[in-house]
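Running log. JK asked me to keep both predictions on one page so they can be read side by side. First protein, sequence followed by its C-alpha cells:
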Amino acid sequence: MGTYRNNYCTGGSCAHTDFPCDPRCDHGNPTATITGAPADWQYEDANGAVACTDPEGCCNAIYHRIYSAEPTSCPSGSAGYTMGNTFTIDNYAWVCAYVRDKAGNSGVSPPQEFKVDKVKPDITCSNCYIPYPVIGGTDVTFRPVVNDDDSGVQRVRICADADCATQIYCQNNVYAPGGTPVVRECSYPTEDCIYSENEFYIEATDLVGNVEVIKGGTFTTILRDGCKCEDSNDCETGKCIAGYCLIPVNPNISFTSNTLTAELGSKNPAVISVKNNMAVSDTIKIVIYGTPEKILFWTKFTNNEQEIDISLNAYEEKLIPVEIFAGEIGTYKLTAFAESTLSSTLYTRDEQTIRIVQKEQGVTSRTPGLNILPVIILLLIAACISTSKRIS
C-alpha cells in the first residue's frame, strides 16, 4: 500500500471512516458481472444489467459500461465500452462489462453469451429446378440445404403453397445445431394418371420459431402410357389415342404354322395368334381373305363368319381357331388382317398356305352345297339318255 499514513490506511484498507474510498489506500479492483443472459435460446429481447462488486464498497455507478464482444475475451481498457449499466439485446451477442470504483481501480467481466435469435434460417437448393416433366406415379426428390447460424434448424417442410396450408409434400423434424448446414432430402410421390402443373415452396423453421420460405420452383406431372387423356401434350408418349396416352404399336397376328396340308373333304382347324401390344384394352378386328377367293367359302371362325372381333386386355394374347374345309384340290393362300379399333392406323397381317391334296380313295371334289351323290346320279341319268338315243 506504499507509505500512506496509518490514519488513512490500516492493514491495506480504508479503515478510517473519514476517508472512504481514498485512492491512497483503495487499491483493490472491483469485479464486474452481467445479469439477464437467457439460459437458452429465445426470440424475445433480453434485458441485461452490469453489476459491480468492490472489496471496499466503492463502486462508481457512472463508470459502469457494456461492450459487444467476441466470445474469447473482454478488453481491459475502457475504450470501446458504451456508457450505461442496463441494456437490451435484440440479437445474438456476446457482452462484456467494465466497471470502475471511486478510487480509479477497474475490472472487466468474462464474455457473457446472450442467446437471442431473430434471424431467419438460410435456404439454398441447387436441384430444386426441375426442367423436365415428371411421369405421374414416380417420386420427385428435392435436396434443399438449410442453415441457421444461431439457434439451429428445427424443421424443414416442402409445400404446395407458401403457407403450407393446402398440401405438405414432406416434412423433416430432425434438429441441427446452429452453424451446421444440413441437407434435408424430401421425396414426394406424385399422383398416377393426373396431369398437373405444380409449384412448391421450401419452409425452414429454427429452434425459436423464425421462419424462412422460398419458392423452390415448378414441375409438371405428365401422364404415363395407359392413362386417360384429352390432349396429346399431356402424355409421356406424346400421343393421346381414343382417349388414352399410348405408344402406338401395331397388334401382332400370326398363323401358328406357315403351311397347312389337308386331304380333300376333310375339316381342318387352323390357329391364329393375336396380341394387343398396347397398355390399354383394345378390340382387334380380324378379317380373313383368300386367294383364290373360293377358299373363303370353306373357311370360317367360330361365329360362322370370315371376320371376328377379339377383346384383349393390355398386352394380352389369344389363340383364335379357324375351321377350313378342304373342298377342292389345289393350293390356296389365306391372309389374316388384324386392325385395332382404337386407331385405324394400327394394323398388321399374316399369311398361310393351304394345300388340299387327293385322298387315297380317289375322291376329287366336295364342295359345300354340291353333294357328290347327286352328281353321280346326274351323270348316270345323262349316260342312260345318251344310250337310249343311240338304240332308237
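And the second, directly underneath as requested:
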Amino acid sequence: MSDHPPYVAVRHGADRATLPHRVEADGAVWQAVRAWPAKRPGGRLPVELRSGGRVRGAYAAAGEGVRVLPAGEDPALPGLAATVARGTLVSHRPGRRAVVRTDDGYAKVVRPGRTGGVVDAHRRGAFFRTGFGVAGIRGGDEHVVTYAALPGRDLASLGATCADAEWRTLWAAWAEAWPAVLARRPADGEDWPRHTAEDEGQILRTWARHAAAVEGDRDVDGRALATAADRIGETLAALPARAAVPAHRDLHDQQILWHPEHGLSLIDLDTTALADPALDLGNLAAHVDFAVRQERWPAPRGAIALAAISRAADALHVDSARLEAWRLAARFRIACVHRYRPRWRALADAELALLTDFPQERIPA
C-alpha cells in the first residue's frame, strides 16, 4: 500500500519541490500562503492554500509539483473531517494540526494521542489569566481539543485598521499587564518545562538548515546561515544567568487579541514554558520589526509598539543587551520561517543577507 495520502489532481507544471505563489484545483485559484519544512531531506513540504475564505492542505514534492488534499481531509488527522463538518477550517498544517471555527468557539485537531500535551500546555497558560483573557478548554478526545471563543481582534489586523488612539491604548495596556503578570510565580507543584538559551540556539541551527533547504528568490549560503545561527546562539548562551519566568514562547501580534471593553487576551498557548524574561519580549519586538518591513503596519505604529515593549523590559529589569540578543535571535528565525511563505520570500532573503553579511555588532536595525 502506498504511504502517500490521497490527492485531488491539480494543474501545476512544477517538477521540483519549490513553492509557487498559486496553484489551480477544483476550478479555483489557490494562493500558497505558507509551508513548513519536510520531515526529511528531499521529502514533501506541507503547504497551506487559501482561496477567498477557504483553506486547503497540500504538499509540494520534487517530481510531483503541488498536490492538494481533498477538502477538509488529512490522513494524518483522523478527527479533521468530522470537525470540519460542524465548522469552518481556518488553518491547516498538513500532517500536524488544523484549527476549525465552530459556532461556539474553536477546535484544534491534532494527530492521535497528541491532545494531552496540548491540554497540559493550556492549563499552564492559565497562569496568564491575572492580566489577560485565556480561552477555557471545553472538551475533547484523542483527536480534538475544543476551546471557548475569546473577544477581540488580533494585533496583526488592528495595526492596519484601528484608530491611533486605540493603538496607543492597547499597547499601554499590554505594557502594564505583561510585567504585572510575570511578577507572580507559578503555584508550587506546577510542572513547567524549561526552555534555555541552549535550547533556543538549537532551534536557530535547525531553522538555518531548513532555510537552506528550500528555494527562495535568491541563493542562500547554507554555511553562512549555520555560522550566523551559531554566533547568535553563542551570544544567548553567554548572557548572565536570570531567573526563568513563565513564557508564551511564541508571543507575536497574531497571538494577542484586543477588545475595547474586555481588554487583552492570549491565544495558542501550546508552547508555554519557563524561560528567560527577554525571550517573549525579543520575539514580540522582532515581529513588530517584521510587520513594519512587510508594510503591514506604518512605521509610527511600530514605534509605539516597540516603546511599549521597552517599558515592559524596564519593569522586568531586562537590560538592552539581553533584549537585543533575544530580538536578534527571533529576527533570524522569523526570516528563516518566511522563506517558506511565497509572498514574503524576497523580504526574508533580504533579511538573511543582512544577518549573514554583517558582524553581529553592526547588523542594521
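Observation for JK regarding the second prediction: The chain has three domains: 1-71, 75-149, 153-362.
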